[in-house]
Design goal:
By secondary structure, this protein is mainly beta. It is built from 3 helices and 9 strands, in the order βαββαββββαββ. It folds into 2 domains: 92 residues, Ribosomal Protein L25, Chain P; 59 residues, no CATH class.
């Protein structure tokens, strides 16, 4: 899994007016949820957008006023009209503890049906998995090459992630 480092500024949760003011300044209000604690901070919109709109899943090294924390993005809220990032919730990672996260799906190969003129439609771009984040891959590669006959679908239940 890839790692990205971002510097953050601590903020106080003062309500929606303060959050709107921060968004106008190009910052995104965020919350880091840890073991019994919540930390409120802001991140630069441009730096965060590159991570959120990537097909990869990132472990994010946050530096909040000198304190470092490793986290995963738990939830992102977007503006309904202009699709800007409005708010991000982060989940602090504990070493060796399993967590739920979404991994991107990359399809490889070319099926018999596509070679014969058919179309491949990818109905899901990521899958929810559970595991220790250090053991999980960047993406789930799914080969749909079939030399016998074309499959009309691929089932998510067929996927198994095996730790290295």
């Amino acid at each position: 899994m890839k790692t990205a480092a971002i510097a953050a500024q601590r903020r106080t949760p003062e309500g929606s007016r303060q959050a709107a003011r921060e968004r106008r300044e190009g910052l995104v209000p965020c919350v880091l949820y840890g073991e019994g604690t919540s930390t409120y901070f802001t991140l630069d919109h441009v730096a965060l957008q590159k991570i959120v709109h990537s097909p990869n899943t990132y472990r994010i090294q946050l530096e909040i006023d000198g304190k470092e924390a490793m986290a995963l993005i738990k939830e992102v809220q977007f503006h309904p009209v202009n699709n800007n990032i409005m708010h991000v919730d982060f989940l602090e990672l504990n070493v060796g503890k399993k967590t739920n996260l979404r991994l991107g799906v990359v399809l490889t190969g070319q099926s018999v049906g596509v070679r014969k003129g058919g179309r491949m439609v990818q109905s899901f771009r990521n899958l929810k998995v559970r595991g220790v984040p250090s053991d999980l891959p960047d993406t789930l590669e799914m080969s749909y090459t079939s030399s016998i006959s074309p499959l009309p679908w691929l089932n998510r239940g067929w996927l198994r992630v095996i730790a290295n």
